[in-house]
Amino acid sequence: MTALKVTQVKSSIGTKPKHRGTLRALGLGRVGRTHVLPDRPEIRGMLARVPHLVEIEEVEGEAPVRNRPSKSTREDAS
User: Fold this and answer.
1) How confident is the model at residue 24 (pLDDT cuts 50, 70, 90)?
2) Is residue 44 part of a domain?
3) How far apart are CA 58 and CA 77, in angstroms?
4) What are the tens digits of pLDDT across the range 49-73?
5) Of residues 72 and 9, which shows the higher confidence score?
6) Looking at the domain assignment, is residue 78 inside a domain?
7) In sequence order, what DSSP letters do the residues of 12-65 get, joined into one string?
């Protein structure tokens, strides 16, 4: 499976609020920041909204998966 290496190359200052929100959703926010994302239609759609702000590179392999503990796995304080 392929993944997408997305790098922000232009500042979001002066852009529309939806563009800034899209960059945040992609895990970006500063010029030069890079994030590896899975190659899925939802991600492609977000990238289509901000092509003037990012550089996209296809890489072989899978994007790292974030494992966030759910609320139910937290240890009780009691």
Assistant:
1) very high
2) yes
3) 45
4) 999 999 999 998 776 776 666 666 6
5) 9
6) no
7) -TTS-HHHHHHHHHTT--STT-EEEEE--HHHHHHHHH-TTTEEEEEEES-PPP
Q: Is residue 69 one of the residues assigned to a domain?
A: no
Residue 30 is assigned to a structural domain of this protein: yes
Domain range enclosing 41 = 2-64
pTM value is 0.77
Q: How high is the pLDDT of residue 1? A: 76
Strand pairing category for 54-60 and 34-38: unpaired
| Burial class of 20 by CB neighbour count within 10 A (0 to 12, 13 to 18, 19+) | middle
Q: What would the two tokens of residue 71 be?
A: 């609320």
**CATH code for the domain in which residue 19 is found:** 3.30.1390.20
